[in-house]
C-alpha cells in the first residue's frame, strides 16, 4: 500500500527506471483507451438496433416518430422526455446535457418543468 516511505518522485529515480515506468504507463493508457473505444462501439451498435418491444415501437410510431427512426436510442430519448415532462429534474438535466444547452440554470429547468 503506498505511503510516504515507499513513494519515490520521478526526479529521484534513475533515467532507465523512469523510462521503464513511463513505458508501462503508456501501455496501460493505450489498453484503457482501446477498452473504452470497444465499449463505446458496443453501446452505439446496441442503441442503433431496432426496438424489439412491439408496445414501445407502437408508442413511438403513435408519437409521430418515422418507422425508420424507431430504435433503442429513440426509445431512451422518448422515455427521458416523458419523465422530464412529468417533473423529473434529473431527466430534464440529462436531456439538456445531451442537447448541449448548458446556459440553463437549475432554477430555469425547474420553471420549465413546473409549467
Features:
115 residues; mainly alpha; 2 domains; 67% helix; 0% strand; elongated
Brief overview:
The chain has two domains: 48 residues; 65 residues, no CATH class. 67% of the residues lie in helices and 0% in strands. The protein is elongated.
Word description of this protein:
With 115 residues, this protein is mostly helical. The protein has two domains: 1-48; 51-115, no CATH class. It is 67% helix and 0% strand. The protein has helices spanning 15-48, 54-62, 72-85, 89-99, 106-114. Helix 3 (72-85) crosses helix 4 (89-99). The radius of gyration is 24 Å and the shape is elongated. The mean pLDDT is 87.
Low-pLDDT runs: none
Ends apart, CA distance between termini: 54 Å
Order of helices and strands: HHHHH
Largest sheet at a glance? none
Q: What's the pLDDT, averaged over the residues?
A: 87
In angstroms, what is the radius of gyration? Answer: 24 Å
Count of domain modules:
2
Number of helices: 5
* Number of E-type strands: 0
The structure class reads: mainly alpha
The helical percent reads: 55-70%
Strand coverage percent: under 5%
Q: Looking at the structure, what is the overall shape?
A: elongated
Biased composition (Basic and acidic residues): 13-32
Region (Disordered): 1-36
Amino acid at each position: 500500500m503506498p505511503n510516504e516511505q515507499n513513494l519515490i518522485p520521478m526526479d529521484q529515480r534513475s533515467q532507465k527506471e523512469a523510462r521503464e515506468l513511463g513505458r508501462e504507463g503508456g501501455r496501460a493508457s493505450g489498453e484503457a483507451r482501446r477498452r473504452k473505444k470497444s465499449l463505446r462501439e458496443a453501446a452505439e451498435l446496441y442503441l442503433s438496433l431496432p426496438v424489439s418491444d412491439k408496445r414501445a415501437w407502437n408508442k413511438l410510431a403513435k408519437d409521430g416518430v418515422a418507422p425508420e427512426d424507431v430504435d433503442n436510442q429513440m426509445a431512451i430519448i422518448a422515455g427521458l422526455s416523458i419523465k422530464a415532462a412529468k417533473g423529473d429534474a434529473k431527466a430534464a438535466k440529462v436531456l439538456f446535457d445531451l442537447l448541449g444547452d448548458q446556459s440553463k440554470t437549475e432554477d430555469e429547468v425547474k420553471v420549465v418543468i413546473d409549467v
